Amino acid sequence: MFFKRKKQQALEPASKEQSYWSGVRKHFYKSKPAVWSVRILMVLIFVALFSDFIANEKPVYCKLDGTTYYPVCKDYLVSLGWDRWDAQFFSIDWKKADYESVVWAPITYSAYTIDYSNTQFKSPFDAQRVSSKRHWHWLGTDEIGRDVAAGMVSGTRTAMLVGVIAMSIATIIGVFFGAIAGYFGDDRLRASRLQIVCNFIGLILGVFYAFMVRSFALSDGGVFFIEMLKSMLILLGILALANLLALALERLSGWNKKRALPVDMMVMRFIEVLNSIPGLLLVLAILALIKRPDIFNIMVIIGFIAWTGIARFLRAELLRVRELEYIQAAQAMGFNEWRIIWRHALPNAIGPVLVSVAFGIASAILMEAALNFLGLGLSIDQITWGSLLNEARRDFSAWWIALVPGFAIFITVTIFNLIGDALGSAIDPRLNQ
Amino acid sequence: MLRYFGTRLLVFIPTLLVISMVAFALSRLTPGDPVECGFDGMSEMNLGTATDRNTYKETYANEARVKGLDKPYFYFSFTSAAYPDTLYRILDRFERQSLNKLIAQYGNWPRISEYYSNIQSLEEALFSMPKNQSRDGQIVLLRDLNQLKIAYQKESITALLDQLQKTVQADSLLGVHLANPASSLAASYQSVQSETTPGLLKIPRLYWHGIENQYHHWFSRFIKGDFGTSCRNSQPVLDRIKPSLFWTLMMSLPAFFLAFSISIPIGVYTAVNPNSWFDKISTVTLFILFSLPSFWIATLLIVFFTTKEYGWFMDIFPGVGLGDLSTSAPFGDRFWESSAHLILPVFCMTYSSFAFISRQMRRGVIDVIRQDYIRTAKAKGLPKNKIVWKHVFRNSLFPLITMIAMVLPGLIGGAVIIEVLFNIPGMGRETVEAIRSRDWPVVYTVLMLAAVLTLIGNLIGDFFYAMADPRVTLDSRN
User: Chain A window 168-187: which residues touch B at a Cβ cutoff of 8 Å?
Assistant: First the structure.
């Protein structure tokens, strides 16, 4: 899309696209670093998506004893449980098999493949003992003979996953809290005392019946997600009942004087509590509670910690937006508050959210790399940029391990920072004067 | 003004309490037995005499009492009516957990407690047996009993009970001593299963424990500066932390002053002369510095500049650690030795914050330059230097106040990765080592201290900000 930018601009009449976002996009693509960052990001996403076809010890296509195989694709089917490997493949050495014809992946090693003839840090320029130049370790090997290039490819997937998973969680939580804090402020969410009391009791009873009564079912009975879903439904049901009760009581008693709830203050205090604990320490302390932590736990934990930035930016923006006239008009027309937030206020405040998501991805990737680098609480066979970089400390002569993974982290962090910067100035034209 | 400070202080206290509760909850959720942490190699698994067992139980109970673990967790507990209010008196954490799960399944505490005391009496009978007879059977029995104490699933309990019966019946001597308690144990499990009261589980109940609880104990000690004892060598946590605090300060104070003293002039200069060649170069450089992960730079520096691996001329700095001069060496030598070792870590800590501060400073100054009063100052012909330092700089200091307050806790918390990489025994490395060796008292003390310091930093920052810019206090009045 952006490769054709200039041509399209010339063809389209200037007056056609006049919306806010087209202006932002135009401004964004004016910045050269941002365009290059997006291009590099596309490459990274491509590598992450197709990492199995880029670095794999199995051939992509091969013909063996007159039969055609697509081992990489077959691997997907096997892991889904739809297919099985024949017995002859259990002990096959893919590199030495007698192929009639074969197509290898660009890197002929998987991240976990151990090349026993090239252990103890073989540099790219060392005399590597490989059967042909096709199986050369282009970025050298590590201590136990794993291919660094293959590790880099699998690390790309991890880094992108961290960005996506951690930031999706953070965005959902951050947008929710930022929206209610910013839109309602300390004065706009009004509830009667009966409502507050009923909701409070409902919450306590809901937690009791949903989680404490069902604690055994949650921890030991059946599939966790299904049980959790049931618990959530119970909790929501009880809360709904409590609100109905409050409504009925209000009608009956006539006590319906509403007072404002300090939503903004509560959310900001909550954020202050979370922010006062150093992020890395908090992640480590929570990781310690998990019996067998893996990379996904880390992503989820980072997501649960990183939402505060998004929430704060969105809150600040919404505090401004909510005073605008069109919001008052929407209120005057009697729209539901939640509808106003979702349909009218949020779309006009989403800019800062995008900016802080871009910066957030950078810091999430950085934090994940740092954790793996420290080697805390992770299984050893998980290969990421951070864990690769960590190996550089074992042998100072392995300059390629010191350089390559760190450079990848640096580039990724930089492009997300650049994108965030460019987005920020594209969204807020005041900064460009 | 006073009113603003008053409300700010009032908000500080509940925040602190909430943080202390979070830290406390985390510390109680950690795996492992908190009583046995710091025990010197004693374990219940060994088959000793009855007196051995009693001594162990006594030591265990004593240790629990000293650590305050024989109390309920919090001021109140909110559970279902099926749970007894005194379950906390069972000191062993794993036994308590399995009892909890049994109650969650059957809801019948009287029967379950009977079953539990039958396990105890079988164990007592086993220990009071003569030790020289049928020793193998006794060891097998003890192992099964220990598993039974922490089993809660129906299948595993039934299997263990069957196995137990078989071992008792197989040996005539064991049969003589243990047949009765073993059969009553099996019978009591039967009655646990048959006489369930699931209705009790559905009745909520609030129980008030009062101030005799673990949180109160822990927090009041924390405020007095008693952070408990480390698991690794039973040293008070404070004594463990003190030397590491020294090294952390030795690193972070120079880094702090360096970062601010370089970045403020750069920030001001680039903002006052925008689009100059220096501004362009420094913007790019600062951006790159800002994105460079410090652990990568640290690794590169260590790999390339501390050894002769890449030629003698690359061996510029001493290796990681603090050198091997003993404490008896003259002060001057020790000072030079450790300074030489601290150059690289301080550099790594400085450059990233330096980039951050310069960028913030530049933005702050640019914001001020756009103000009308600066235009007025220019219009009335004030010299540029005077405008910059008297009008612009002083007004752009506000973001700096917040930034200094933000940096303060980091001074003491230390830079975890840098310390680990350069092997400097500061707070960060101490924490990582404590996590690795599951020394939770140290970990949560550091966590709590860091959080409290951050809160205090925020508070101080707000105070100075309000002193510098009294408009802030107006907000709180309406």
Answer: none
